[in-house]
Each structure stands twice: as C-alpha cells, then as structure tokens.
Design goal:
The structure holds 2 protein chains of 2 kinds. Chain A is 35% helix and 19% strand. Chain A is an alpha+beta fold. In chain A, helix 1 runs antiparallel to helix 3 and helix 8 crosses helix 10. Chain B has an 8-stranded antiparallel beta sheet with strand order 15-12-14-13-17-18-16-19, sandwiched between helices. A 5-stranded antiparallel beta sheet of chain B has the order 5-6-10-8-9. In chain B, a hairpin with a 4-residue loop joins strand 8 and strand 9. At the A-B interface, strand 9, helix 7, helix 8, helix 10 and helix 15 of A face strand 9, helix 5, strand 11, helix 7 and helix 11 of B.
C-alpha cells in the first residue's frame, strides 16, 4: 500500500490533503523557501500523530511539523516529498489548573489564546512573540520562542514543564522537568522538530502583574536609543520590556495604527514596567532619568490601559505594517551582548548602505535581540542578491561582537550553513549525537539546523510570494 | 596525566569505594587530557566539585579515578553591564556570587553549603532550591556551557547572550546529568540585580493552623521569594516537637517589603498564626543560608531525606503522607515544604544509628508503586544501593540509556548513578 493510502486508512480522508492546490498552502513559512510536500495531515489527537509517524517512518518519508508557519528561518518548510503534520485541529487547552498555575495544551493552541483562557484566573502565559495572535505553542516550543517579554520572563524553555511527544517508532513518551533522569524536556524545547513530534505541552502560568506602565521615549537615532538600553540594563534595572523601533518602522506603524508614537524621532524606545504599584513610580523615574542622560528627547507614559494596549498592538504589528511601504522585506534575527547594541546597529547600518538597501530596525533591545529588516524589490535580481549577502554579513557582524545568529526563530533551513561560524565541528558533533538518539534515520524535519556538509555557496532567494506577504501583513511576522 | 597533581584519594571515597587516584587538572585542556586518558584506559571517573550533592543517585558501580574541579575556579568573562558572567565550573557558588555582589548582582542558585558547592557540581546535580518558583531553576540561568566528553572532546553550546536558539540547548542535558555524560568545565550565566533589601519572617505554625496558613501564604498579594513550612529541622530555624515554623523571605524595594510585611501579618494573623519575628540585612541572609544548608544536612549515618515533587496544591498532602509512613515504621520525620514550588523534603531518622538501616529499608519497601513521585536525596553511602534512590519510575528509560551510551559508550563517567549497581553489570549500559 502506498504511503498516502496508508495515511487515508489510518486518519480518514478528511485528515489527509494531497491535491496540489491544498499542498501549496503548506509549501512555505515566513522564510523564502517553497517546496511541495507529498501530503499534509491534520491529526485530531496524539494517537493520530503516532499513526502518522509510524507510517512515515516505515515508508521512509520525512516528517515536518507545522504550527502557524511564522518562523523566519524555514523551520516549517516542507522537505520535498515528505509529510507535513499540521496541528490546526489539535488546538485545545486540555487543562488549566489555576491553583497550581499551570496548563496542559495541545501544540496547535494559539499563544494568545492561552493567556486569554488564563486571564479570568488572574494569570497569563509569559512568552509573547509578536506573532502571538497567530503562532502556536507547538511552534513556539519548537523554536524556543521569546518575544518582547523574554527580558523579564524568559523564553519558552523557562516555561515548559513537560512535553508529550511521539518517537520515531510511533510510541508516545512523556518528558517532565521534575522527573528522574536526563532533562529531555530541556533538549526537546528548541529542537525545531528534529527530535520528536510534540503532541502536548505542560506550561507554567504567571500571575498578572498588579501594575503596568508603558512609556515611550524619543531619541535622535537608533544608536542613542540602544545606548540608553545598555545603560538601563547596565545599571541593574530590568524592566519587563525594552523595545526599539527606528524612524522607518515608526512611520509605517503610525500610518497603520495611529498609536501615538512620535514620527519625527530617529528612534523610539518602548519601556514597560510591570510589577507592584509600590515600585512603579520610582521605577519609571529612575529609568526616565537614565534615558534623559542618554539623550532622550522626550518621555511619555501611556495614560491608561487602552493607550498601553495600542502601543503594544502597533509594536507587535510592526512587521506587518511594513507591507504598506515595502515591496519586499527580509527580516534577520540575531543577538548580541547588550552593551554591544550601539556597535551592532552601526554595523547593520553600514552593511545596509554598502549593499544599497534601505533598512528598518524593530527589535527586542533589552535582550540584545536585533531584527533588521532589509527592504528590496524581488523583481530586481541584483537587490535579491544584495539582500542575501547583507543578511549573512549582519550575522557575521553579530558573531564578531560576541553574539549569535538566532535569538528566537531557530536555525531552520536558512541558517544551517551559517551554524559552523558559531560552533566547531566538535560542538556540532555533540549535538548530532543527541540527534542520533532520537532520530537515527534523520526523518524528523531533515535539512534543518545541521549544516548540509555540501557546498555552502547555495544561493538563497529571500523574495516572498504574494501569499506570504499577505500572511505576514495579516498576522505580523514573529519578532 | 602527569600534568594534574594528585590529591589524597581517601577524601573522595563514595559508597565504600576509594578511587585509585584523585587528580585536579588546572585547565580545561588538562581536564580534557585526563578524561581522554581515563577513557582510553577503561578507568571509571567520578567528577568532584565540593562533593556536597554527591548523595544523589546510586553510588558508582565502578570508580577508579576522582577528578576534582577545584583548580578550575577562574572567572573567564564578566561584563557586568551585560548581566552575564562566564566561570570555570570548579568555582564555588559562594565565590561566584561574591564576584557578582561586587557589582550588585547575583544568580539564585540556592546552593546548600555554597562555600563548598561548586558551580559545576550544583548544575550537574540538577539541584533547585526554594526560590525556583520565583526566579527559576539554576538551569534557567545557564546561557552557555563548555564540557569535556568522555573521549576528551571539548564541546560548547549556547553563548554569552541572553536569548539564543542557535543549535540544540545542550546545557540542559548537562544540567542534572550527575556527571554521567560529560564534565562541566565552563558555565555562562545570566545574572540578576540584587534586591534593594531582603527580609525574613519567621512565624510559629501550630498544627491546627498549618493548612490554612499555607493557603494564605500562597495567596499573598506580594509574593514571597521563599515560603517554606518547616516541621522539625531545628538547624534551619524550625522547632522540635509538634509546633512547626513558617519561613518566608521577601526581596525587593524597602517600600514593597514593608507593605509585604504588613500584608503578611494580617493574612497569617487571620489564619490563626501568632506573632511573626522579622529578620533584616545580614540576619536575614544568614537565616536563609541556614535554611539552604538544612536541605542537604544529614544526621550522621542515621538519617536520609526524601524529596517529593509535584503540584504545589498537593504538596502538604504528599508531605504528610510520607511523614506518616515514616512514623509508622518507627522513624522520626521532619519536613521542609516549599509552598510555592511544591517540593517536599522529608528527613527521616532514628535516635540510634544501629536501628536506622532496617527501619528505612522497611519504609522504602512500603512506598509501593502507587506512591507519588519521590526520590531519595541524601542517604548514608552504605545504604544507597539497597534503596529506591530514584523512586519507582524513570521516564523513557530506554532513551535515557541510549543517551548515556551515545555520549559515554565505555561508561567512563560515574557508571550506575542512575541505573544502580544491579543494572550496571557487564553488557548492560547505565
């Protein structure tokens, strides 16, 4: 029996897609690569997933798990001929235990939906990638996603207490942080679907802060704003979020959202101070003082909840609103030590100039997590090449500054050939040993993370299709 | 091998086994050379930091060489304005935090005996202390690591940035691996700013008010960073006899801690708890240090400590069930209950050492498969191999074994730590 026939038999015809027009919807994520899978399956529960894995493994078909496809590095791009597992139907919060502040979710639950479900109990889920309105907790787990609040609450790995996952033989396993033995939870988070297919996630929930202030400071340029961030963190202050947008981004955001960011400033710094009301005023005063000493031109606190939410909504929708002014754009995700931010921004600017590409910056400054957006027109071949070259140069610059090549999107397909710039063959061999334990045949999301070992000069095409642009504009890429 | 000076092997005995040699390499390169040589010679290695948490798991089935990390104690990088630090893993937790304190920072590792406890040992042990619900576990602060694998390969993961998804998060695998996969040589941490002030509140906790007090503490508006219900553990500020003690710690601004104190008094007053004692400044930090030490404290050869993990809301019941079981087997039970994190530590003991082994073996056998998850945290060396050190179940045992085999095919590192001597005979991988 063929692979597809076996999938039909196991899952039923309504859970298996094979028509080219259906497959094309799953051919890409927020990266530029596009490849058609052999089939897409839509399992309803862990048992369905186990069946799919068993069939795929027996038939030698690669498996690519997929959340919402908001990852920037191609982690959810299908492997030619493989099976994509979409978790769209596994989207239930299975349990929410308010007393113990934890929840069990299926991987298809949308990030924001969990916080909405927890809100009546005075709780929320910490990691909040900008794509949280569409990205799933399964995908977030796969890439160890962060978001603006990673500064204070950490990334997914700090919130996942256990995972249920399907192994290559189709058996269901459970890894728990508190269990005896090696920390399998810790390695499964961020493994980009290469070690197992996650079917349920236990997460911890946090208590909603008693007080939240959101403030906006204007700066002459992005270097000054990032110097302020370095100074704030360097003074031992850790507000709950420190986000920067430069002029280009603010213009796009304001045109779309009208949230009240100053459009005449070279850069704006968004500061969130959440915690207890007792500390809110002194906290804001201290941070505002440092910002002024670093050249802030203005400082303004949001008047109330509505304004706070508007400032956040527009920040999280920044990439999407860029669609208004850019024919195409390419987003990079890299991290540097926080004191190196001004230098990193300067290097990004130099690299963009050298490649004659306009660049916008919207990023998680408090974590040193850069997201330069290079603007180009995919119809111009020279610009496409320039973007690829500039993207790599930015990664190299971040490495040279003591940073790394991925802050929250993983390595995926895009950065696997860059990985050897960060890690030695011995480092990578240690990681490969772990891979061997879980997936010796390399059928779980192959061609991701690990360098191909083949020619590294593969030309990347960072251009996006029309449908991708629409996806990004609708939901906001995951920054 | 000649590079690493020898130490007195007797100081590194475990489970009645004295290693042939004890070596203390002075650099990561030297460490790699020593490990490689041992691996090639088929000698079993136990890595020693301060030895404070060597009581976790079974004693090694084979044990030829002790490798002390004591000389690997340097600070490698500290850019305090980045709130990150990189140290060699032999550095004591106390010295790590002393370095950080000079810049008003800390890492909440909550090590018992921090002056002895090494950074690497603490991480390898998988230890997490009373502030894990508030700040996270030690592994949550590790942003990068360098290890030496059994074949002498030096492998790093992560880096010196606070947000990083570049390659597998191998540091998570090393943390909690009890030195069975690799030697932690270097660890990079993200740090936190020290709170403006720390206050400890101690309150009597009579039996009749215990459950209500625990509920009130869990519902406080200003969350304490530590909330422990003690029963016994006099060295930690608890009391012998029926009356328990509530140990709370608040960290933050003066304004916040003052308000927390007022809230606390009214909340636990409402629960029927009498007046609280407040400790500030060094009195508070000393009291916290004594509490941490109590986690690891053993009463000679006549006590051991069970650790039970699970939901915070069920911690009191789990704790009491274990304590009652101990009492039924004529063991004295003391408990240390983490109200926020849900861990319960129950120390069982006898008055006379001679009575202990038989009593604890009866208790251990009675804790059948239906018992909640528990592990034995700290047992006298000679009893370890006869007890269920890891409780009743280990998740994915085949995967666990496979990991061990891939990274340490010759079982050079502390063979049997997880599997036990019985499962570690020839031909079995552990």
């Amino acid at each position: 029996m063929s692979t597809i026939a076996r999938l039909y038999e196991a899952l039923g015809s309504d859970a298996v897609l094979t028509a080219p027009e259906d497959l094309s919807v799953y051919a890409y994520d927020a990266y530029s690569q596009e490849r058609l899978p052999l089939a897409v399956v839509l399992p309803r529960d862990a048992r369905d997933v186990a069946d799919v894995v068993r069939i795929a493994y027996e038939c030698g078909e690669p498996i690519v798990p997929r959340g919402a496809g908001t990852g920037l590095c191609g982690g959810a791009v299908p492997v030619e001929g493989g099976i994509v597992i979409s978790f769209a139907r596994m989207n239930r919060v299975l349990a929410l235990d308010a007393r113990n502040r934890r929840a069990r979710v299926q991987p298809g639950v949308i990030n924001l939906e969990l916080s909405k479900a927890a809100a009546p109990f005075g709780l929320f889920f910490g990691p909040d990638p900008s794509s949280q309105k569409i990205s799933t907790l399964g995908g977030n787990t796969g890439t160890n996603a962060g978001g603006p609040h990673a500064l204070s609450y950490g990334s997914m790995t700090n919130h996942v207490l256990g995972v249920e996952y399907v192994r290559t033989d189709g058996s269901l396993s459970y890894a728990a942080l508190d269990g005896a033995g090696y920390d399998l939870t810790g390695v499964l988070v961020g493994s980009e679907g290469t070690l197992g297919v996650i079917t349920a996630i236990d997460v911890r929930l946090l208590r909603l802060p008693r007080s939240t202030r959101v403030c906006v400071a204007a700066f002459g340029d992005v270097e000054a704003a990032s110097a302020a961030v370095s100074a704030i963190v360097g003074a031992g202050l850790l507000p709950t979020a420190l986000e920067i947008m430069d002029k280009l981004i603010v213009s796009a955001v304001e045109a779309h959202y009208h949230a009240g960011y100053p459009t005449d400033a070279g850069a704006v710094l968004l500061v969130e101070i959440a915690g207890y009301p007792d500390d809110a005023e002194s906290g804001e005063r201290t941070i505002a003082q440092i910002a002024r000493e670093c050249g802030a031109l203005s400082w303004r606190a949001a008047a109330g909840a509505a304004e706070r939410e508007a400032l956040w909504a527009s920040r999280k929708g920044a990439a999407g609103s860029l669609g208004r002014i850019a024919p195409n754009y390419y987003i990079q995700d890299a991290t540097v030590p926080r004191t190196r931010l001004p230098q990193a921004l300067q290097r990004v600017d130099e690299i963009a100039r050298a490649h004659k590409l306009p660049v916008g910056n919207v990023f998680h400054a408090g974590d040193g997590n850069l997201h330069p957006l290079l603007i180009f027109d995919r119809r111009e071949r020279a610009q496409v090449d320039a973007v690829a070259s500039a993207g790599k140069a930015i990664l190299e610059a971040c490495i040279a500054l003591g940073g790394t090549i991925s802050g929250e999107h993983g390595i995926g397909y895009e950065k696997r050939e860059t990985l050897p710039l960060v890690f030695s063959p011995d480092d990578l061999a240690a990681m490969a040993r772990l891979r061997d334990v879980f997936d010796p045949k390399r059928l779980f999301n192959p061609e991701k993370i690990f360098p191909s070992g083949a020619v590294c000069g593969e030309v990347r095409n960072p251009a996006q299709t029309q449908s991708q642009r629409q996806t990004l504009a609708a939901g906001g890429a995951w920054l | 091998m000649a590079l690493a000076p020898g130490l007195d092997p007797a100081a590194f005995a475990l489970g009645g086994k004295v290693p042939l040699r004890a070596l203390a390499p002075a650099s990561i390169e030297e460490l790699a050379a020593v490990v490689k040589a041992c691996n090639e010679a088929g000698e079993a290695v136990v890595v020693f930091g301060g030895g404070t948490l060597q009581g976790i798991g079974f004693s090694p089935a084979r044990y030829d060489i002790a490798i002390s990390t004591a000389r690997l104690d340097k600070v490698l990088e500290y850019e305090f304005r980045d709130l990150t630090i990189s140290v060699e893993c032999g550095r004591s937790v106390e010295r790590l935090n002393a370095t950080l304190a000079e810049r008003g920072q800390f890492v909440p590792l909550d090590a018992p005996s921090p002056g002895l406890s090494s950074v690497g040992g603490l991480l390898a042990s998988g230890w997490s202390g009373p502030r894990r619900a508030t700040f996270g576990r030690p592994r949550d602060f590790v942003i990068g690591s360098t290890v030496v694998l059994a074949d002498g390969t030096v492998a790093k993961a992560g880096g010196m940035v606070v947000k990083n998804v570049t390659g597998y998060d191998m540091s998570k695998l090393w943390c909690g691996s009890l030195g069975t996969l690799a030697v932690l040589a270097r660890a990079n941490f993200k740090t936190l700013p020290l709170p403006e002030t720390t206050r400890v509140a101690l309150a009597a906790l009579p039996e009749r008010t215990r459950r209500r007090a625990v509920e009130h503490v869990a519902a406080l508006d200003v969350e304490p960073s530590v909330a422990i219900a003690l029963h016994g553990f006099p060295e930690a500020g608890g009391r012998d006899g029926q009356e328990g003690r509530l140990f709370l710690m608040f960290e933050g601004s003066h304004t916040l801690v003052d308000r927390a104190t007022r809230d606390l008094r009214s909340a636990i007053g409402a629960a029927g708890v009498p007046e609280t004692t407040l400790l500030d400044g060094t009195a508070a930090t000393s009291a916290f240090a004594r509490l941490l030490d109590a986690y690891g404290a053993r009463l000679g050869e006549r006590s051991l400590t069970y650790r039970s993990c699970g939901l915070p809301g069920e911690a009191l019941s789990r704790c009491d069930a274990l304590a009652h079981a101990a009492t039924r087997h004529e063991l004295h039970a003391e408990s240390l209950l983490d109200i926020l994190g849900g861990d319960a530590y129950v120390r069982v003991s006898t008055k006379l050492t001679a009575e202990f082994a038989a009593a604890v073996e009866r208790l251990d056998a009675s804790l059948g498969t239906s018992s909640p998850t528990y592990t034995i945290f700290n047992a006298p060396e000679m009893l370890r191999d006869g007890l269920k050190m890891w409780g009743n179940e280990m998740t994915s045992p085949a995967t666990q074994r496979d990991i061990k085999h891939r990274f340490d095919p010759k079982a050079t590192f502390a063979p049997g730590r997880f599997a036990g001597r019985a499962n570690c005979s020839e031909g079995k991988r552990a």
